[in-house]
Design brief:
With 402 residues, the chain is an alpha+beta fold. It is built from twelve helices and eight strands. The protein has an eight-stranded antiparallel beta sheet with strand order 4-3-2-1-5-6-7-8. A hairpin with an 8-residue loop joins strand 5 and strand 6. The protein is elongated.
């Protein structure tokens, strides 16, 4: 029976080994992405606390002065005294020097082309002085390249790379299962041997032990990381989360603003004050402007007692009157939504802070080694069989010659 599982383990590893190696390597880099970003770009994220912070509207005004053609979509205000403020903006697409010919009109019954989205940026600004610190776009960073390689093999969200990563991740689950079956010992003595590396042995035995021992200790973590990763690759998997939990995949519709013709819309300061009447303290308040005249101003925030970084609460405010229309606490969300929200912190290892991130980092690095050590094991085994076969063939030839 183990011969069957060994072949399945081998063939699946050959099919998906390279993609698994890439995903584990890029995953290890992305585990501490936030910490690395903030460590190497302190002037972007940190400021010296000096006096009283400027109002949200004053900061937005400073951004508009510095970038007159920018459309402000929102602002993220941190409670920490030493953090910069983030203003989300969009710029109109650049016009090419040479005018492009008009696109042909879609045929009757065909879907119209999706409207072109304006490039999005984040303007980091000093909340005390109003000084613009940096115009930032995540898509222009090296970390985004690593992220795109991890998720889509440098393709896009609808690319074949996304499908390849998804299928390889699914295969990886079966590789891990068959690996545990092959590891499982018949006796207690063999089990003790497979729980530690024999460092005094030759390099072939050490390679063999690294594959088996490290594979056993990291298998459950790799399985969890791969399993949660499927939610970004397959819509059917994400829908399955809601089906298993008996929840609807569609969140409740947020309340609408009461339209008032020619009415002045509320300021960022009033939106913040309204949100603070519901949640007086939070690590940050992220105020997003409505996209049309009927939507509400949305304020998302992370409470100090949040279970994890995705446990976000929301407050909805009328964009004309400033009245609080409703709220959506994380605890009020459906079970499916709460379970789905845990997938990112579990997948990235941030669910329990630095300790779980360290585990995720080490496990991902080990995941890089398994396709390598496994290939070496296969090569050594194949070479050994070939040598045995050659020796037997030569002996038979000598017997026939005599």
């Amino acid at each position: 029976m183990k011969v069957f599982f060994r072949r399945i383990h081998l063939y699946l590893s050959f099919a998906a080994g390279l993609v698994i190696l890439i995903c584990c390597l890029t995953g290890a880099i992305l585990v501490f992405e936030k910490e690395l970003q903030m460590a190497f770009n302190k002037d972007r994220y940190y400021v010296e606390a000096a006096g009283t912070k400027l109002s949200a509207d004053s900061l937005v005004s400073k951004v508009k002065q510095g970038f007159p053609d920018a459309k402000v979509n929102g602002i993220k205000l941190y409670e920490a005294v030493g953090r910069s403020t983030e203003v989300s903006v969009a710029f109109p697409p650049k016009k090419d020097a040479k005018a492009k010919p008009e696109a042909p009109k879609p045929k009757e019954g065909a879907k119209p082309a999706a409207p072109q989205r304006n490039p999005g940026f984040t303007i980091f600004i000093n909340p005390y002085t109003g000084q613009v610190l940096e115009k930032y776009s995540y898509s222009e960073t090296g970390f985004y390249t690593v992220f795109a390689l991890h998720r889509w093999l440098l393709g896009g969200n609808d690319s074949i790379g996304k499908l390849i990563v998804g299928i390889s991740t699914l295969i990886f689950l079966f590789i891990l299962i068959t690996g545990i079956i092959l590891w499982w010992p018949k006796t207690k003595r063999i089990m003790m041997q497979r729980l530690k590396i024999k460092r005094t042995a030759g390099w072939k035995r050490i390679n063999h032990d690294m594959h088996l021992v490290f594979g056993f200790y990291s298998a459950i973590f790799l399985f969890i990381f791969a399993f949660t990763g499927l939610a970004w690759s397959f819509k059917w998997f994400e829908n399955g989360i809601y089906k298993v939990t008996g929840s609807s995949p569609k969140p409740p519709a947020p309340p609408k603003s009461t339209y008032v013709a020619d009415a002045k819309k509320i300021s960022f300061d009033k939106a913040l004050a309204a949100a603070q009447t519901v949640y007086s303290a939070a690590e940050f308040y992220n105020i997003s402007l409505p996209k049309d005249s009927s939507e509400a101003v949305s304020v998302s925030l992370l409470g100090h007692d949040a279970a994890h970084e995705s446990a976000i609460n929301s407050v909805y405010i009328d964009q004309y009157s400033g009245a609080v229309l409703g709220k959506m606490a994380f605890s009020d969300r459906s079970l499916g939504a709460q379970v789905r929200s845990t997938f990112k912190p579990v997948h990235t290892g941030s669910i329990w802070g630095t300790p779980s991130k360290i585990i995720a980092f080490i496990v991902c690095l080990l995941g890089v080694t398994f396709p390598i050590t496994g290939t070496i094991m296969w090569y050594n085994r194949t070479r050994k069989k070939y040598k045995k076969g050659t020796t037997k063939a030569k002996e038979l030839e000598e017997e026939l010659a005599d």
